[in-house]
Amino acid sequence: MLNVAPPQDILTRPTPIGIEQAEAALVEHYPRLTRLAYLVLPPSLGRNRRVLTAHALVQRSLPRGRGSAEAVIPAPRRGDPGYGFVRRQVVRQALEAGLPLRRRAWPKRAQLPPVLPHVWGLRLFPRSGGADELALDQRLSALSGPARAAFVLRGLDRLSDEEARNELGALGVEDPGAALDEAGDPGDAAALLETAEFDPCSLQARPTDLMRRRQHLRAALVAAAALAVCGTLLGLPGDGWGPDGAAAPPYARNPAAEAALDPARVARVDGAAWRTSARTDFSVWPARGSLTGDTALLRRALAVWARPGRSVQVSATPGTPSGPPMGAPQLLYAGRVDRASVVLFYDGLRVARYAEPVDGTSGAALDFARVDGADAASAGALVVGRTDGNVRYLTAPWVREAAVRDLLDPAAAPRPLPRDRDGVTAPLVSPAQARDCTSWDVLQLREDSAGRLLTDLGELAPARLTWGPPDAPKDITGTAAREAWARTACLLPTVRSHGVRAVNAWQFARQPLPEANGTAAWLCTRADTWSGTDSRVLAQFQAPGAGKATAGAVAARAEDSAACGTHEPLVLAGVLWKSRGGHWYVLAAGSEDVVRVAVSGGVEASERGHLLAVRTQEGARAQLTGRLANGTQVAALR
User: Taking CA 284 as the corner, what is the angle to CA 300 and CA 387, rounded to the nearest 5 degrees?
Assistant: First the structure.
């Protein structure tokens, strides 16, 4: 661990740093510098890009030229100002990487994906940790960039409050004191910053989507061939890309583009269409709201959708295009929600939400969410407004009753949620905007006899929550399902703002624990997205004796995995567990199709069936494998 100086040892005069001295510090402390960069970089980049970006930032942190760089640097106790200089460059670039891109302004180099290092065909990410590391990752995700930097400098490099404040000031942070207050005291979490969960130098590798990669390669070959043919045609007489070709002149008027901007062309569905339609999705939602006849508002909304200005805040869930509509969209809602005028459109692929203040157009916002392939279960509601940590929904016309249920209190009855005549609910607390997990309010919708649960994950379309095996998930209605979800809800922030369509929790095994310590439950939680790719899978170990709202321990997690899904309803996971008697065990469980489980590495053992419990030592590392009845080998979820 790097030793840093107490406040009285800090240098207060410019220290010349030669490139050789900085390079030596970079090489010596490379693992720590990349860890710093990885922790300060915004989590929204994803773990693969954060790993590559962290390495790129450190490798770009040497002084330019062969001279020396002048800077006021808090020198480490061992008198290495070179490390202080390189660290400052790394943290500065990591903060710049989190800045939003601005129109008509050149992006900073750190804001762009790194050119080098680059790994073709693989996704790289650090090894997964346990529940404590996951909680710390969620805590860091909720902080601003300067606050993350303050937390990491104090927790990882052990800077005092005064040292961290001086360092943040030197990095150009406007209010270092506010950043320190937001970050809070790292406390015991400081030790977790040293774990493999946050080490971009100790990595796991997985392939990217092989089918999509193959399709992209074929598409690239076809595009290259088409380009070659079109290039040849340019030199031929007759119709080509010249003035007499098929392309219209730039000043020509396009009928489809004009229709998309005309409020009179907006599609409006009859209020009873959903009762007789063969489809039950957003396409049969009627136009509702008190402002559906406000032509000026609709015209502004359509114009902003087609050409959002620099002052418009535009957001889109991952995998959702944010371009203009392909033609006249369908109007779902236009009305006043809290202090804003809100318009919801649907174009067959996306839902677009336009919002502007009731007293003007300054501060307008435009949000997109992909909703193609929706059905009655996933088209039950849309977010129509967010204010002061609360959320309002516009419910589907077939919804008869709305209520609120706290997932963390499985025994509590649902609370009625009033709706106005247009189907807009009263405000309820949004768990997607909460900093802690003391409650998790979800929307319960009742149609005929079904009662579906939807949760806000920071997007326009709430995610549906289900329970059961991957091939037959059901709504969360029974006591067992609600109790299992009470210990799962606080893990949902790991898939927040990720374009999630549905999250299913599946109890794939129950395991009697050694030394009569009770029975544990093994759950697999899978979040599927609207785009169909980039899923998130968590394997949980829920030990007995914990509180009903205590989150289970994360045994493993994976991205872009088929595990626990309809294509591969299998899973195998393991944990290192300590009994009440103080003995350590390797516990493993697989789904029922697994007929043998084996462990190797720190301990060698195998057992018939889908459960395994083997005595071991603290800190043991082992590899798990399983086999199916047909001899197929199953790897543990990672």
Answer: 50
